[in-house]
Design brief:
The chain is an all-alpha fold. It is built from 5 helices and no strands. The radius of gyration is 18 Å and the shape is elongated.
């Protein structure tokens, strides 16, 4: 039975619900992870260009932001893995009460 459940799980929707307590918008849910990453990167670049910084300052700001991302991404990954393991254990043990909803965005 669990195998059928796991086959039907949409990880994009599951991650949005776990993170924000709500379903993703239809447009974003239909995009692949790669397309969503590229869209976010493009939006960031547009915002950086919109600041009107000199090219060198723009690069420095991007370097600071990238350094921050390098430090926090593993933390978010670990938190996601912990949540996934907790969810899996609760599903295997049939303990729905162990899964507490997160705060709504």
């Amino acid at each position: 039975m669990l195998n059928q459940l796991f086959e039907r799980v949409d990880l994009c929707i599951l991650s949005e619900v776990l993170l924000y307590g709500a379903l993703p918008e239809e447009q974003e849910a239909s995009l692949s992870c790669e397309k969503r990453l590229k869209a976010a990167e493009s939006e960031l670049q547009q915002q950086m260009d919109g600041l009107g910084l000199e090219p060198r300052a723009n690069e420095e700001v991007q370097d600071v932001f990238n350094g921050y991302q390098i430090k926090v991404n593993p933390i978010y990954f670990e938190l996601g893995m912990r949540a996934g393991v907790k969810l899996y254990r609760a599903l295997v043990e049939g303990d729905a009460g162990a899964i507490k909803p997160g705060p709504a965005a």
